[in-house]
Amino acid sequence: MNRALEIHVVISGRDVGKIVSGASKIPFSVCQGSNQQGGCSMLNTSHTISFVATSNAKTAREFYEKTLGLTFISGDQFALVFDVGGCMLRIQKVDTVDPHGYTALGWKVADIRKEVSELGERGVTFARYEGMDQDGQGIWNAPSGAKIAWFTDPDGNILSLTQFF
């Protein structure tokens, strides 16, 4: 006798769908946040677009495409566009970049030591910050257990790699 198992998924008192055993894919998406009306926010299920700025598009494209290995999608008078793990990165073309003293863009990586080594071989220099106990590769062990390394793009935007545990 072939019996299907059906599970109804309820989040915050709201039935959001069901899972049937043997189904090849789950027929709903689960929203982890909510809007003020108590439903799922469209933004919670949408891809983000990241932005950084450059005053030298040629140098930025070479860095992001060749050094970091990102997939170049397009460029116009306003921005360079890259694909980063299925999300869009727009590098806006501006006259002057005013880098901030904090991370503008970061990547979650599976093996930070390997990534730091490979980027180092491509000419990336990892930043050292006073008061932070970073190892020989410039990797800091955060109190949470995460390992983080920072570097900058040609315009001085701070970028980071993080390996979570």
Characterize the structure shown.
By secondary structure, the protein is mainly beta. The protein folds into 2 domains: 6-45, no CATH class; 49-163, 2,3-Dihydroxybiphenyl 1,2-Dioxygenase, domain 1 (Roll). It has 2 helices and 10 strands. The protein has helices spanning 57-67, 112-121; strands at 6-11, 14-20, 49-54, 71-75, 79-84, 87-93, 103-108, 140-141, 147-152, 158-163. The protein has a 4-stranded mixed sheet, covered by helices on one side. The protein has a 4-stranded mixed sheet with strand order 7-10-9-8. Strand 9 (147-152) and strand 10 form a beta hairpin. The longest helix has 11 residues, at 57-67.
Output the keywords.
single chain, 165 residues, mainly beta, 2,3-Dihydroxybiphenyl 1,2-Dioxygenase, domain 1, four-stranded mixed sheet, globular
- Please tell me the overall pLDDT: 84
Indicate the overall shape: globular
Helix coverage percent:
10-25%
Strand order of the largest sheet: 3-6-5-4
Q: Which architecture of the largest domain does the CATH hierarchy give at level 2? A: Roll
Which structural category fits the helices and strands? Answer: mainly beta
CATH class division of the largest domain: Alpha Beta
- The residue ranges in which pLDDT falls below 50 over 5 or more consecutive positions are 1-29
Tell me the span between the first and last alpha carbons.
44 Å
User: Looking at this structure, what is the CATH superfamily of the largest domain?
Assistant: 2,3-Dihydroxybiphenyl 1,2-Dioxygenase, domain 1
Number of helices: 2
